[in-house]
Design brief:
- This protein has one domain.
- Helix content is about 70%, strand content about 0%.
- It contains six helices and no strands.
- Helix 2 packs across helix 4 and helix 5 packs antiparallel against helix 6.
- InterPro entries: DUF6691.
- Keywords: Membrane, Transmembrane, Transmembrane helix.
Length: about 150
Amino acid sequence: MQIVAIYLAGLLFGLGISISGMANPAKTLNFFDVAGGWDPSLAVVMVTALLVAAVGYRLVLRRSAPVFAPRFQLPTSRVLDVKLVGGAVLFGIGWGLSGFCPGASLPALGTGRMEVFAFTAALIAGMFVARGLMRLGALRASAATA
């Protein structure tokens, strides 16, 4: 049943991205073009998503545990470190240059457009590079304390 819930959540997300037009990189790029043909629809999608998430969290966190897990796994750290800020900067640069965020690129793969596949390949490569850098940092830290 858990896998069905995962697929339904992914389907709902993909439909939302597609229906809102956010799988089209021109929508994102036009949002950033404040001096030209500015398109505020991305802001509307973001605000709507924040409202839905806020209501969803309030309802779900009233439960003692999630449906498919023994406990909730919520972030506890409030530290703004180099990894968080650096990741946010890279995310923003990639989004601004390509017009795709990772969430919107996955439903857009269905369009068969080459730039979507190129972005997704770069995204996956970046994830492997980031993982490698984190492992390297952990190795250096453990070597320094040994």
